[in-house]
Design a protein that fits this description.
This protein has 3 helices and 6 strands. The protein is α+β, with helices and mostly antiparallel strands and about 130 residues long. A 6-stranded mixed β-sheet has the order 1-2-3-6-4-5, covered by helices on one side. Helix 2 packs parallel to helix 3. The protein is globular.
Length: about 130
Amino acid sequence: MKDRAIIPDELEGYYSDWKMSPGLACGDFLFFSGFTGADADGNLSGDPETQIRMAFRKVGLVLAKAGLSYNALVEMTTYHIGLKDHLELFKKIRAEFVEEPYPAWTAVEVAGFVRDGAVIEIKAVANRVPKSE
């Protein structure tokens, strides 16, 4: 099976400008680029909740383009500036999206991102084979 880029219309700039796939389907897995909380126009809210929700929205766009839901997530790594400042908020929002069996998760504190003002980046892996019950 050939690798295939998953590019939602709203995220086409990742592919054309940055030369990276928002998602890359490889065999049974879908690998995601890291997503910050900037909106489609590149605007970044100063509100951590808005940024976290926008990052999850981008993950959802890639999942939907691949014909999947958040249930397909098997692994997630999140990068945070001020991890302890918004960890409980992040956990609360994350719980709105992930489903049992919950994906593996690692949270990492970082010094900065390419985009100034970003406080979160989400990187994930999904399995394109439905989970058995």
